[in-house]
Each structure stands twice: as C-alpha cells, then as structure tokens.
Amino acid sequence: EPGYRHLSSETFLELAEEAKKQHTQVELVLKQFNNRDIATLLTSQSAMEKFLTSLDSVLLAYPITGINIDIEYSGEKSPELRQGMTELMRQLRQHLDNKYQNITLSIDVYASAASDQKGLWDLPELAKHVDYIVVMAYDFHQRSSGQAGPVAPLFSDDQKWGSDINAHLKLFLDQVPREKILLGIPFYGYGWQTDTTEARGNTYENSGFTVSYKKAKELLALSRGETSTDSTWTGVSQIKQGFDEDALSPYLTYQQNDHLYTIYYENPQSIAYKLEYARQLDLAGIAIWALGYEDKERELWEVIAEGI
Fold first, then answer.
1. Going by DSSP bridges, is the β-strand pair 259-264/249-256 parallel, antiparallel, or unpaired?
2. I want to staple 186 with a disulfide (CB 3.0 to 4.6 A). Which of 32, 61, 95, 138 is the partner?
3. For 62-102, what is each residue's pLDDT tens digit?
C-alpha cells in the first residue's frame, strides 16, 4: 500500500523530525473505502481487536501524535453499521487513552452527515469519543456532475445548485460542539467540457478532470499573455476569469481545440472567505484536502497564515 510504504521510508522520518522542530503534530490517516471490509470491521469484535493490535505496532514504531479515521461507505447503511461505527470509535478512544499520552483522535464525515439520520455517522454519539470531527465540505460538484459548478460553495442560489456549506454547517452545530468541528476545505477544483461559455454549463459525459491550484495559475498566466511549457494548455484561447458571488468561488472558462471548458477552483480570495466563515462560527479550525495540491505555490498558505 503506497501510504504504508511511505510511512516506512527515511523520507517520512526526516519529515517527522522537521515537524517536531517546527512544533507541528504528525497525524496518521487510516482510510477504508471498500464496503465489504468496512462491514467486516464494524460488525466483528474480533476484527476491531485485530485493528487495535495492528495500530499498536505503528504507534510504537513511529512518532505519531494523532489518528484520523476516514471510513467512507457507499450505498445504503444498516443500523448495525451505524452502531458499529460508533462502537469502533468508542473502543479506539478508550484504547488510546489507556496506552498512550496525548494522541488526538478525529474522524472525517461528509458535509451531508448531519442531515442523514440513517447514515454511517451518529454525530452526537461520535462527538463523545473524538477530539475533532472533520467536515469534508467539498465535492458539492464532482468530475461526474452533469453541470459545471463550485466544488465548495459557501452559499448557494437554489436555482443553481441548491446545496452549500452554510446549510450543512447549521445542522452540524445542532449536533456537535463547535469546538470539535474542523471545516474541511479543498486545495483543488474540477474542470469539464461544457456546452456554453457561461459559468453554469451542461457538461459532457466523462469529461471531468481535477485541477490543482498550480494548474489554474498556469491558465491564468496564459490569459495575461504569458507563455507556458505545460502541454495541458496547448491550443487554449478565449480564457475568461469570473467569480461566483453566491458560492464565493472563482471560475475560468476557455476554448481548446474547438471545445468549450469551465473550471471551478479555489484561490486566496475564496480560501479567505472560508477562513472568515470558520472564525465567525467559532469552529475549532480547518482541515485541507490535500497537502501538495498547491505544489510550490505559497499564496494559499499566506492567506491562511493571515487568517489565523
């Protein structure tokens, strides 16, 4: 598994040592997206015990200061799975408290989790056992979306997309203490081939693609007449920049090889709005997906440094 391979590398140990010097914590993300494996783990006490034993082998070998659980089950969830998720986190919390000192525990949940009373996450119960709940407040539009739109809209026009971060966070605050909520924000966006140069166009099937902040900046540079050696943007013309005042999200439209495209992404302005939103709600802070999507660009980190 690539993640475990990197964990075992000298590079990770060097990074962990640098983090320590900078008084920064090192959290281990444990993910599982396979429905069958999730069901086995959440419905079997022996599987839970084996999980905790395996985790010990990692915590004793590496300088880990926090555990983040990212379990995402697709399809209909049974009450048994919902109860099992809570029980897993209860046992994990107890295990960490009994054997280790000062290891934080967090869990990732969809933005829609607070409105899904039959979903995998029983938020009021989970909040009893974790230090933080990371609200993955992104992917409101995805590569497969039928219309172009913002990945992480703070607000919405019901006639456009009908769902936004603010609507979901209001429900979270009814179920989870605000000091345990981390607002998950994206360092990426999506682009699509569309049927119009307008921001909210219909997309062509299987045309969606991920756009890093670095890639978006390259396209913006081209719009200013600068040259680029990146083959991604070969033949691009008619680049137009816009800002969706409802979503508080930037977007780009352009032509390439006689096709029309739209990109929604995040920039310092949209990140600043999200930081201010988290501050106004007095949340615990933010989480980012994912480190590295910004490449060597520093603007997003600079606005975060100013915002906190």
1. antiparallel
2. 138
3. 999 999 999 999 999 999 999 999 999 999 999 999 999 89
